[in-house]
Design brief:
Layout: E1 2-5, H1 20-31, E2 35-39, H2 44-54, E3 59-63, E4 68-72, E5 80-85, H3 91-100, E6 105-110, E7 117-119, E8 133-134, E9 145-151, H4 157-166, E10 172-176, E11 181-186, H5 191-202, E12 209-213, H6 219-224, E13 227-230, H7 236-241, E14 244-245, H8 253-263
Parallel strand pairs: 1-2, 1-12, 2-3, 7-8, 12-13, 13-14
Antiparallel strand pairs: 3-4, 4-5, 6-7, 6-9, 9-11, 10-11
């Protein structure tokens, strides 16, 4: 099977801790021959850190909500090669969102995903993994981007979502997170679009796909997968989009999904 797994809220707790039972279940399904593919909104540095932690050194990973796909190879520097990068012009969306959210923090990941990571000001500790460079806002507008993050410290998630909806944002794919956090990707790009390319490369039939996640950026992935499972702590709209619901991350919900796949 191709088993697509979100990271934050599915594999890792929000404080970056990892349940030994969940880690054991992931390692076991990979050892059993299933294709475990991490599919995350995280950028490359945050994704590779989790891959190393789980001992996943072969296969594929999807980063930046589908804009970046990695081919894992322990012989390569860092343990991976960049297989696919999809970019977009972030300027129209950035200009529009700054009008509605003048106090927000902005992050842009460029086409050179290993080097170009620009922010208008430091994000709260632990929210971005890997080095970033603080630059004036206008510097974000003049290069192709794989991912844009907009973070507002002064709004609740609900208020933030309302402002984004009111802005009339279009021409990109986007998802609002648990906090006042907005992820932008190229239009039509999602975890699902990248996963389907990986599925074809692996020659896995569509009916042999499983996806587990907990966020709004997992909705397309749920629709793509033959079997979709939402973590128990997810919001109501995410729970409704999944075919099944497992226990919360606090109760090792991912392990409950994966362990039976090893016992078969």
């Amino acid at each position: 099977m191709l088993i697509a797994l979100d990271i934050d809220g599915t594999i890792l707790h929000w404080d970056e801790t990892l349940s030994p039972r969940v880690e054991s279940a992931i390692r076991a399904v990979a050892a059993a021959g299933h294709h475990v593919v991490l599919a995350t909104g995280r950028s490359l540095p945050g994704t590779t850190a989790v891959l190393h932690r789980l001992g996943l050194d072969r296969g594929w990973a999807v980063c930046s909500n589908g804009s970046v796909t990695l081919r894992l190879d322990p012989r390569r520097p860092g343990g991976y090669a960049i297989a696919d990068v999809i970019t977009f012009d972030p300027a129209p969306a950035l200009k529009l969102l700054r009008e509605y959210l003048p106090g927000a923090l902005f992050f842009v990941e460029g086409a050179d995903v290993e080097r170009t990571r620009l922010v208008t000001a430091p994000f709260p500790d632990g929210e971005l993994t890997g080095p970033v460079q603080v630059v004036p806002f206008d510097q974000l507008l003049h290069q192709p981007a794989t991912r844009v993050v907009v973070r507002s410290i002064e709004h609740t998630s609900e208020e933030f979502g309302e402002l984004v909806a009111a802005s009339g944002l279009h021409g990109v794919s986007y998802a609002v997170g648990w906090t006042a956090w907005l992820d932008l990707a190229p239009e039509g790009v999602s975890k699902a679009s990248a996963l389907d390319v990986v599925r074809a490369r692996l020659r896995v039939p569509p009916e042999q796909t499983l996806a587990v996640g907990d966020g709004n950026n997992d909705l397309e992935m749920f629709a793509w997968a033959h079997r979709s499972v939402a973590m128990g702590q997810a919001r109501d709209d995410v729970l409704a989009a999944a075919g099944e619901i497992t226990a919360s991350i606090e109760d090792d919900g991912l392990a409950l999904v994966l362990e039976p796949l090893v016992r078969r």
